[in-house]
Design a protein that fits this description.
151 residues, elongated
Length: 151
């Protein structure tokens, strides 16, 4: 069997997972924004007001900078993985690790009740991310990423 037929099914699976990853990532960002807006409105209806503190402004500013960097990095990763570029799986792994670590760090400053739908979408996205990482590092198509440059 040729190399192309050996990896045809895993490549199709990878591309399908990449599409699902893009969809869930794209859905999670506005869902979190909507969740925050819903919480502000709910607090206003209950008569709960809160002033922004320096910590809130720091976390908000940090999230804006993080999204400004991570969204272009994710797009570059998706394009690279779709085209089997050798460096793309490592960039995807690094972006995933940084995102998880920052999520833990931000979680230390955020104690709130939230709408569960954004969390469900994020958890589903984590499953797709894990499957993508498993495919590009441990399946037969991992050899496609070992060559130099785009195939």
């Amino acid at each position: 069997m040729s190399r192309k037929t050996d990896t045809a099914t895993p490549v199709s699976t990878l591309r399908c997972l990449l599409v699902l990853d893009i969809i869930t990532t794209s859905a999670a960002i506005p869902l979190y924004a909507l969740s925050g807006a819903m919480m502000i409105k709910a607090n206003e209806r209950l008569g709960i007001t809160s002033e922004l503190t320096g910590g809130d402004l720091f976390v908000g500013s940090f999230l804006c900078v993080y999204l400004g960097i991570s969204i272009p990095a994710a797009i570059i990763c998706w394009i690279g993985l779709f085209n089997s570029w050798s460096w793309s799986r490592w960039l995807y792994l690094i972006c995933t690790a940084v995102s998880l670590l920052l999520g833990i760090a931000i979680g230390m400053f955020d104690i709130s009740v939230q709408w569960s739908l954004p969390n469900a979408v994020t958890n589903l996205n984590a499953v797709f991310t894990g499957a993508i990482l498993a495919l590009v590092f441990f399946s037969p198509i991992s050899s496609r990423f070992n060559s130099q440059g785009p195939e």
